[in-house]
Specification:
This protein is α+β, with helices and mostly antiparallel strands. The protein is built from five helices and six strands, in the order ααααββαββββ.
Amino acid sequence: MTHETSLLRHRGTLRHTTCAAFVASILVCGSVAVPAQTKVSVSGQVVDPRTRAELESARAAVWRAWFAGDSASLEKLIPAALAVGSPWIWEDRTATFQGARLSGASGRRLVDIRFDSTTITLYDDLALMHARFTYVLETPDGKRTTSTGIASEIFVREDGRWMNPFWYLK
C-alpha cells in the first residue's frame, strides 16, 4: 500500500457526485457577470510573480501542516467547506484533519517536498493549480520513502489569504 493510499483511507467519505457539485459551485460562484460585448478568456488571467509566490507558499504550507499533523495551521489554511479526493476515496474536512493528526502522530517526518510543472489558472480570487509532486518521508527509525503523483488543487482568496478548499491527488 502506498503512503498516498493510506493517507486517504479514512471515514467520512463524500460521494463523487457531491464533490463534483461542490467544485462546480465554486467555479460558478467564482465567475463574474460580464456584458455580452466583453470577451473573457477561458484560459484565465495572467498570474503575476507575486500571486504565483503567494499560491505556491500557501500550497506548501497546507502540505507541510498536513504531514506534521498541525491542526492549528490547517484551521487557518483550509475553510470549513472542504473536499479531498483520490482514485480510491473522497473525504471531507473532518476525515482530512483526522488523517493529518494520524500522520503527525505516526512519527514520520516530511524531509522534502517538490512540485514540478506547476500550472496556475487564475479567475479573480479563484486559482486552479496542477502540478506533479514528489515528497520524501522519514520514519523514526530513519527509513525514507518517496512518493510521487499529480495534484489538482483549488485555492480561493478570502480576506487577502489563499485558502485551499479542494484537492485531488492521483
